[in-house]
Amino acid sequence: MPSSFHVESADGYERLMGRWSRTLAPMLIDFAGLAEGDRVIDVGCGTGSLTFTLAQRPGLREIAAIDFSPVFVEAAKRANSDPRITIQQADACALPFEDDCFDRAMALLVLHFVPEAGKAVAEMARVVRSGGVVAAAVWDHYGGMSGMRMMWDTVVMLDEDALPLRRKYCFQPMMRPGEMKQTFIDQGLADVEETSLLIRMDYRSFDDYWQPIAAGEGPLGKYVAGLETTKRTAVDAAVRAAYEAGEPDGPRSFASVAWACRGRVV
C-alpha cells in the first residue's frame, strides 16, 4: 500500500525531516527497549535515520529495514556499511518476512503516511515473536509541530485552497490523542503504553527552514511548487515574515512533539 508522503529526492527529505528523525530516533529506541542479540525490523526506514541509529547500539544480531519508496531504499543502501543491516523495498502492510522472526518492530514517523495504518501495525505484530515489542512514533501535527503549523497557518491566510490541505496535514492517521494506542490494542497487542517525545528543530536561518519546502519536498512543498508566480511570491514573503517575527533573519528553534506507542506481542 503506497505511502501518502510526497518525495522529490533523498537529499531534500534529509533537509526537510531526516535530520530531525535522527534526533528523535534514540528516544524511540529507548522507549521500545533493546536486548542483547535482538533481531529488529525498521518499518518505513526512509533514508535510514532509525536503522543507522539502531546500528550504533552494541549487541544487536540483525537489523532489517524496509521502505515503500525506491528513492529512500537506494539512498539508505548507499549509506550502509554494516553487514547486520539489510534494506529492501517493501510495503508496510505486507511485510516480506515469516511470522515470529524478529524480537522488535519499530516504525519512526511512518504510520501517519500509511492510509490503512492498522494493517501496518498488524504486520509488525505478525513478524515479532511472542513477548516481543512493537513500537512506533508519529508527529503530533495538530498540537506539537509549531514550526510546521506556522507555515500552514500562514499559507491559508493567503489561499483558501490550502484549507483542506491543512486539515489533512493536521489530522493524518494516528495523530489524535489515544488513536495510536487504540490501534495497537485493536491489533491484539498487550500492555500498550502511549507517551509523547519532545525535540527541538533548530534552524540556522530562514533559508535553512524554508528551502526544502520551496524545492517541493513533502506535502506543503508539493502545494507550494504548484502555485502560480504571484501567489508563490506572496507565500514566500509571508512565511519569511512569520519566521522572522519582526527580528532580523537568523537562528530559530521550534518545539516538536511526537506521539509514541509500544505494545507487547501476545
UniProtKB/TrEMBL annotation:
This is Class I SAM-dependent methyltransferase. GO terms for molecular function: S-adenosylmethionine-dependent methyltransferase activity. The lineage of its organism: Bacteria, Pseudomonadati, Pseudomonadota, Alphaproteobacteria, Hyphomicrobiales. InterPro entries: Methyltransf_11 (IPR013216), SAM-dependent_MTases_sf (IPR029063). Pfam families: Methyltransf_11 (PF08241). One of its GO terms (biological process) is methylation. It comes from the Bacteria. Keywords: Methyltransferase, Transferase. The keyword Transferase applies. SUPFAM superfamilies: S-adenosyl-L-methionine-dependent methyltransferases. Residues 41-135 form the Methyltransferase type domain.
